[in-house]
Hints:
258 residues; alpha/beta; Rossmann fold; 2 domains; 8 helices; 48% helix; binds NADP nicotinamide-adenine-dinucleotide phosphate
Amino acid sequence: MNITKSVAIITGASQGIGRATALRLARDFSAIVLVARDKDNLETIAAEVRSLGAEAMAFALDLRQLESAKSIIEGILERFGRIDALLNIAGAVPQIDLFQMTDAQWDDGMALKLHGARRLTIQAWNALKASNGSVVFISGSAAFDPKPGYAAVATINAAINVLAKAFAEQGIQDGVQVNSVSPGAVMTRRRQSFFEKWAPAHNLTVEEAIKKFPEQAGISRLGKPEEIAHLMAYLVSPAAKWMTGSSIRMDGGEIKTI
Ligand SMILES: NC(=O)c1ccc[n+]([C@@H]2O[C@H](COP(=O)([O-])OP(=O)(O)OC[C@H]3O[C@@H](n4cnc5c(N)ncnc54)[C@H](OP(=O)(O)O)[C@@H]3O)[C@@H](O)[C@H]2O)c1
């Protein structure tokens, strides 16, 4: 069912989990705003969103740049006049060993996934207050199991979970709902690049690694972007309105700690 005049922003929408979320939300929102750097991919996805019945607007911008958040929110408010949901999905934190990673690589990971999402949420906040809107941050299951090759990913994901709770605390007063989602291993371009490193380290080809990894992780299979997208859609739906400040894992059962 299409809810009229509702606007959702999805960052990292040019592929992977963000793309799947944009296409899933096109069924529930009347306008979908797509943010990532790759203009051609965004145009293709904008056409797919339109074919599903929602309006589409695309911003081909680098969220590490300080001015991006302001220009996105101003552009949306000028065109649509409201914002109902913000899904901060963009992320490209380097997957490098703790003892190899440089300060510049740490800064780059934080500039996008932590500060890019933080700035966009702050810029969108007044509009989200006006609509009693929803925010979802994407974290990752590495936050709960910080392996050395994943130290920055784990640290920044843990920070995202806390940042989401800090926004949620303010959101209780302001009428804005804020949660975070921590996916496990989901097959995307990013996961493919993980396997390209993981495979030789385990004397496997990439194809063998993709088959072997679920067994090593204690799960039955890798996740699909569409599965995370369904959870995202639930979190920004009226059915989830009382859920806020929550940090939700969806990982095929990989992590079982409470
Ligand atoms: N896949 C997994 O197994 C997994 C597990 C846990 C958490 N996650 C998290 O889920 C999120 C999405 O991951 P994914 O696997 O779907 O990765 P992906 O396929 O590589 O997609 C990443 C998205 O972020 C965008 N992006 C990257 N740098 C950007 C920048 N500087 N400014 C704006 N957009 C930028 C990319 O678009 P452009 O290149 O066009 O800019 C792309 O749309 C990430 O935050 C990741 O950490 C993924």
